[in-house]
Design a protein that fits this description.
This protein is α+β, with helices and mostly antiparallel strands and 590 residues long. Strands 4-7-6-12-11 form a five-stranded mixed beta barrel, surrounded by four helices. Strands 9-10-14-5-13 form a five-stranded mixed β-sheet. The protein has a four-stranded antiparallel β-sheet with strand order 2-3-1-15.
Length: 590
């Protein structure tokens, strides 16, 4: 049994070059990817590189002043944080200040305008039926709008995909639309039962098309619609202001051609809080490309089934519903059938960014409060830069002390440890640089602290292995078998230690946000890299060095001198006494 075991050990010892070659290839590939991406330095957080700070003030609805409370503010912070910190590591900070303010800090390097828009459009989300629509200041071009279909859509459904989002709808002339408005609204701004025979909140025209008791309301709405010019920022900001969800309204939205389009919308049929989940999905089944899938709550699913069932029986543009976020139409898909499954799919030549943006709005668009943008200021990185410099100096001093200790105590072995630290540092730097454009990771001051702490964790792994090897030498073994015998026990200790560190980092990452999350992310990343470096670099390198005469002979500067380690004498076999056929030989006779 001993011979096969020796054979396996010999085989394992003879191929350390493969592991070293593999990690070298990985480093070269990652470095090449870093240079090809054009991002050769890690993206810095707002405390190190500066950025934009937005102050939002909560505004309660008339008669609902008590709505500004800690519960609603915390909910608003959570929703905003998810919207601007989609993966949790882009280091945008969202926090309350006082009783009615929320501060949003967006680091430099992030698309601050897009993030600002995300934050500034988080008031209320509604699904409203479209009554009339046209390009603001021009006749509507004849291009179809996105469609909404049951999810998943069958490949034989012709309306399961269409042209880009928010495009103008082929419809009747402006005057015909005006007549439709008159027939669609009643005195309480609730759509009347139309040709579909339903009064479930749709904006379907009455059979006669004549003015109803709500003529005054519809006439006022038509006047607002005629006067609305969505190309003017002031008109867009004022459109629909003060309108209740139960009332019809006017609104603006941008179509796929970049033109501003104006709408008359019926009362809200579905609230944003009725959306349970929304996500962007690349649909290969129907070749629809990027789509947005929505799941509704039980209550929301019923309301959505009612409105889509009614809209499906109408003619354009009254077979569309508008997704309205903070008074602006972000999408206006048409409906071809009643969607009764509690879910729906919005398709229409979306790009990945457009689909993800829409799904993000649907998921996190409904806030319990309305917010007003109080101020937008630029934050300098002067203080953070000074702190970073001080932190780097402290880290350099700590690293120098660690290296000095290794040189004094481990001598020749210290060069293996230093080489391993350099490999770990190179991997950490390259991966951080790549994670900036990949997932929005931003290196802030706590994250730098996490990387400095990781130096100790990595050095600790080397020390555990080196001490195991030295223990084997103290037992009287030569270096090469000592390296292999020490590895299983050292490996177990290293894995347990790193697992505990990674678990602590993971828990910290999950339960925190902002800067502390950056610390946890960096600590977890460097802990994983420690395992990779020890297994694929440190151990193979020590195996190779054990074959060199300098280390194998136990040179006094190798750090593995048996004499200085107090090693036992090598184990030797006791000579057996000679035997003969007559029995043992008398020592005296010998």
């Amino acid at each position: 049994m001993a011979a096969p075991k020796r054979g396996r050990n010999a085989s394992a010892q003879s191929k350390p070059g493969r592991s070293l070659a593999f990690i070298l290839i990985v480093i070269v590939a990652l470095t090449g990817g870093m240079f090809l991406s054009g991002h050769t330095t890690p993206r810095l957080g707002i405390d190190l590189a500066g950025g934009t700070s937005i102050t939002l003030k909560a505004v309660s609805e008339p008669g609902q002043e008590s709505a500004i409370n800690k519960t609603n503010m915390d909910t608003a912070v959570e929703i905003m944080n998810r919207r601007v910190n989609g993966l949790g590591v882009s280091e945008a900070e969202v926090q309350t200040q006082g009783e009615a303010n929320i501060i949003v800090n967006i680091p430099k390097g992030t698309n601050s305008k897009e993030a600002q828009d995300q934050v500034g459009t988080t008031a209320k989300l509604y699904f409203r039926p479209v009554v009339a629509t046209e390009v603001s200041g021009a006749a509507a071009p004849a291009s179809p709008s996105p469609s909404a279909s049951g999810s998943p859509s069958g490949p034989d459904e012709a309306t399961s995909s269409s042209s880009p989002s928010n495009s103008a709808t082929p419809s009747a002339s402006a005057s015909a639309q005006g007549r439709a408005v008159t027939g669609a609204l009643t005195a309480d701004a609730t759509p009347s039962a139309g040709a579909s025979g339903s009064a479930s909140g749709s904006a379907s025209p009455s059979p006669s098309g004549s003015p109803s008791a709500g003529g005054d309301a519809s006439g006022k709405l038509e006047e607002q619609y005629a006067a609305l010019d969505c190309t003017k920022p002031t008109d867009r900001a004022a459109a629909g202001k003060g309108t209740k969800p139960t009332e019809a309204t006017v609104a603006c939205g941008q179509n796929a051609q970049g033109q501003w389009q104006k709408y008359i919308l019926g009362p809200a049929a579905v609230d944003g809080t009725d959306v349970d989940k929304a996500q962007a999905v690349f649909n290969t089944t129907t070749a629809a490309g990027w789509t947005v899938n929505m799941d509704f709550t039980d209550k929301g699913g019923k309301k959505f089934a009612d409105i889509t069932g009614t809209l499906a029986q109408n003619q354009p543009p009254q077979n569309q519903f508008a997704i309205v976020l903070d008074g602006e139409v972000v999408s206006d898909p048409r409906v071809s059938q009643a969607l009764t499954g509690g879910n729906a799919e919005i398709s229409g030549s979306f790009t990945q960014e457009e689909a993800q943006s829409l799904s993000n709005m649907l998921s996190y668009g409904a806030l319990p409060l309305t917010f007003r943008e109080e101020s937008v200021t630029t934050v300098t990185a002067a203080l953070g830069g000074e702190q970073l410099q001080a932190g780097l100096i402290a880290g350099a001093i700590g690293l120098a002390l660690v290296v000095l200790y290794l040189l004094v105590y481990y001598r020749g072995l210290s060069f293996i440890a230093i080489a391993s630290l350099l490999v770990s540092a190179a991997l950490t730097y390259v991966i951080m640089a790549l994670l900036g454009p990949a997932i929005g990771f931003a290196l802030n001051l706590p994250a730098v602290c996490g990387a400095i702490v990781a130096i100790g964790i990595t050095a600790d792994s080397f020390i555990v292995y080196f001490e195991r090897v030295r223990d084997e030498i103290r037992e009287g073994r030569s270096l090469r078998p000592a390296v292999e015998r020490a590895w299983p026990r050292a490996r177990r200790t290293i894995l347990v230690s790193d697992f505990v560190s990674f678990l602590a980092a993971a828990v910290l990452f999950i339960v925190t946000v902002g800067k502390v999350q950056g610390f946890a992310f960096t600590l977890g990343l460097t802990t994983v890299l420690d395992v990779v470096v020890v297994f694929l670099f440190t151990k193979p390198l020590l195996t190779l060095m054990a074959r060199r005469r300098f280390f194998a002979s136990g040179h006094k500067w190798s750090g593995l001198d048996p004499k200085s380690l107090g090693a036992k004498p090598p184990l030797r076999r006791t000579p057996r006494p000679a035997h003969s056929a007559a029995g043992p030989v008398d020592p005296k006779e010998a």
